[in-house]
Automatic annotation (TrEMBL):
Protein name from the UniProt record: PBP1A family penicillin-binding protein
Bilayer-spanning residue ranges: 12-35
Keyword match Protease: yes
Organism: Alkalicoccus halolimnae
Entry similarity comment: In the C-terminal section; belongs to the transpeptidase family.
Domain of life: Bacteria
Keyword Transcription attached: no
One biological process term in Gene Ontology: regulation of cell shape
Keywords in alphabetical order: Carboxypeptidase, Cell membrane, Cell shape, Cell wall biogenesis/degradation, Glycosyltransferase, Hydrolase, Membrane, Multifunctional enzyme, Peptidoglycan synthesis, Protease, Transferase, Transmembrane, Transmembrane helix
């Protein structure tokens, strides 16, 4: 009999063992089927920092920044274990007593109301299962929890849990919650602060101190009591810590409003240049190093929102500032009231007016080698196959130097010059600076474009002058790092040689004159500045684009309805640009060693006081001429004798105010004129009054 019992017992044990092994293998197999490790990769906030490493903003679908368990203080870990799962380090993923309690309550209430009780089950639920509650789902939760314990250590499970759980107000994980509630990183949390965070996951909307301070304090104090009961803190500590106040105001984890224009363009660049979708950025936990200068970004935000800077209330505005050395965008504003994902005027194309002249006409002309800054251009009202450009002043000088045509933004010579050099030559140079034009007409010289240029394009092209003739595309992203700190990409802008250093330097000097003596005089700045104004037809668009030794930028102001306001000038954007331009460490632009300097223009003087005195010399009569000369000693003077109605050149002098003609027939009282001559332009000015040589009796015998 006893042998039979032993046999039966052995068989039962074997059956149970086989069933147990089978069940265990089933759990593992089911767990392997149910667990996709990709689901354990959490959506993590991307951090945008400046080149000094200072955080500018966070971009997220779920505001989360994962941290290692070693970063989380023990007392913070203890708070969660105490209130959520006090036997966490003892069980194998499920707590039998908790499961029994849950099943009992489900039967009593005839529903699946009881949630998972262990930390591992909560991780299983949050990572792998849908929110619905059912008996099948509870079974899946248990099986997945057991498998998680099989695959991962307790420390790994606790780390995943603390980085995944939701704390309310958009904060996921202890690091984001610490920043939100206390404005500090998790490693800086005190015991009572950790207790508050541990109090929240059970019901963030119920226990948040920002929603219900009283309930939040009760829940936190409960956590402290439980920590005492489990010997994590003493009774004295629990009493003292329950007297601590709760946070009153949440700390911002979203972008400064001033950064919105910049961040939108940065996200666009991440997608178009680096292939990162916005969804990837918002959940990938990247670190993006931006070229932004926060101080300049905020200052430009405030200035461009100031209604007093706009000459017409119906106008909007945009601003771009680039680093001359790198081409990085230091600041950008997309509009007076720019909203996220809205129309960004920094990248929107507008009619450029005369700001295109340096890019489309004068720099290309210099590059041909056939023109120089003091070359004479035709300034007449001409007809080009039906196109008749005119000067805004209504007056024409016949001819004018390139220098003065640019300084005073005269239209007729700009169109004439573009016609001379050819539109294709101009378009090629523009295309090398990221500007592609379909237009075939000479109206390009005056900014008459079908689409126009954006402030970003304008600033990028003007930086070519500042960068010794080399162009590279403006950029927002310096570097990209993954969540492990490994660099994925960095900005490597390709430089294109668009023009010679000599041409770039000549343009710098000529456009300096625009600011000091021409159309760009509005406003004040202490920095050396070269630039150009622009106004489109009906004043729908007014511009200033320019550069200092360190920065290049553009300000656009405009309106979409030409009839909505009065005609305005480019003085407003010029003044705003100068107000926003950062101080310079230089007092002047530095000329490259290998280029020739551009001389200052030589201006003619009107001579109305030529005097001619004749006196007796050693070998005949001497004629002494005298006149009022220019202070510029580079101006030449040509002395002509007038005989029989024609002029004969006697001599040419530089910087003199008198001249003596010796051995003159004393019986012939000749007439003379002096004509100023500009050696830079090879042009004569107006001749002086005619002076007849008269005897000066006081000089005889001298």
């Amino acid at each position: 009999m006893w042998m039979k019992r032993i046999t039966i017992t052995t068989i039962v044990v074997l059956i149970l063992a086989i069933a147990g092994v089978t069940a265990y293998l089933g759990i593992i197999l089911f767990g392997n089927y149910a667990i996709d490790e990709k689901d354990l990769i959490m959506k993590e906030s991307t951090t945008v920092v400046d080149d000094e490493g200072e955080v500018l903003t966070k971009l997220f679908e779920e505001n989360r920044e994962a941290v290692d368990l070693e970063t989380i203080p023990d007392h913070v870990q203890h708070a969660f274990i105490a209130i959520e799962d006090q036997r966490f380090f003892e069980h194998t993923g499920i707590d039998p007593r908790a499961i029994g309690r849950a099943l009992y309550r489900d039967i009593i209430t005839r529903s699946a109301a009881e949630g998972g009780s262990t930390i591992t089950q909560q991780l299983a639920k949050n990572a792998f299962l849908s929110p619905e509650k059912s008996l099948l789902r509870k079974t899946e939760e248990v099986l997945i929890a057991l498998n998680l314990e099989h695959r991962y250590s307790k420390e790994e499970i606790l780390e995943m849990y603390l980085n995944r759980i939701y704390f309310g107000h958009g904060a996921h994980g202890v690091q984001a919650a610490s920043q939100l509630y206390f404005g500090k990183t998790v490693d800086e949390l005190s015991v009572e602060e950790g207790a508050l965070l541990a109090a929240l996951p059970k019901g963030p909307n119920n226990y948040s101190p920002f929603i219900d301070e009283e309930r939040g304090k009760e829940r936190r104090d409960l956590v402290l009591d439980v920590m005492h009961q489990q010997d994590y803190i003493t009774a004295e500590e629990a009493v003292r810590l329950k007297g601590r106040t709760l946070p009153q105001e949440r700390n911002s984890v979203t972008s400064n409003e001033a950064y919105t224009s910049y961040i939108d363009l940065l996200l666009n660049e991440l997608e178009t240049e680096y292939g990162f979708t916005e969804e990837e950025i918002l959940s990938g936990g990247y670190e993006i190093v931006a070229s932004m200068d926060p101080e300049q970004q905020i200052a430009s935000f405030e200035k461009m929102r100031d209604s007093s800077v706009y000459p017409d209330e119906g106008m909007d505005g945009s601003y771009v500032l680039l680093d001359n050395e790198t081409g990085g965008v230091k600041a950008v504003q997309g509009g007076r009231e720019y909203v996220k994902k809205g129309l960004n005027y920094a990248s929107a194309k507008r009619q450029p007016g005369s700001t295109i002249k340096p890019l489309a006409v004068f720099a290309p002309a210099l590059e041909t080698g056939e023109y120089a800054p003091y070359s004479m251009l035709t300034d007449e009202p001409l007809n080009y196959d039906g196109y008749e450009p005119g000067n805004l002043s209504g007056s024409y000088s016949g001819e004018i130097t390139m220098y003065d045509a640019l300084k005073d933004s005269v239209n007729a010579p700009a169109v004439w010059l573009l016609n001379e050099i050819g539109l294709n030559h101009s378009k090629t140079m523009l295309q090398n600076q990221g500007i592609t034009l379909e237009e075939e007409g000479l109206s390009v010289a005056l900014g008459g474009l079908d689409e126009g240029l954006s402030p970003l394009q304008m600033a990028g092209a003007y930086r070519t002058f500042a960068n010794n003739g080399k162009y590279s595309e403006p950029y927002f992203v310096e570097e990209i790092y993954d969540r492990n700190g490994d660099m994925l990409a960095e900005s490597e802008p390709e430089e294109v040689e668009v023009m010679s250093e000599q041409t770039a330097w000549y343009m710098t000097r000529m456009l300096e004159s625009v600011v000091t003596d021409g159309t760009g005089q509005a406003g004040e700045t202490t920095a050396p500045l070269a630039g150009k104004t622009g106004t489109s037809m009906e004043s729908r668009d007014v511009w200033f684009a320019g550069w200092s030794p360190e920065y290049t930028g553009a300000v656009w102001m405009g309106r979409d309805n030409a009839e909505s306001g009065e005609e305005v000038t480019s003085s407003a954007p010029t003044s705003v640009f100068k107000q926003l331009l950062p101080d310079s460490s230089s007092t002047a632009f530095e000329k490259p060693d290998q280029v020739a300097e551009l001389e200052e223009p030589i201006r003619f003087v009107q001579i109305n006081d030529l005097d001619a005195d004749m006196s007796l010399g050693l070998f005949g009569a001497d004629v002494e001429l005298a006149w009022s000369a220019s202070e510029d000693e580079r101006l030449h003077y040509r002395i002509y004798r007038i005989e029989g109605g024609s002029r004969t050149l006697v001599d040419e002098v530089a910087g003199e105010a008198d001249y003596t003609i010796s051995r003159t027939n004393f019986l012939n009282q000749a007439e003379f004129v002096v004509v100023p001559y500009n050696p830079l332009t090879d042009r004569e000015g107006e001749e002086s009054n005619t002076a007849r040589a008269n005897w000066n009796i006081f000089s005889q015998g001298s």
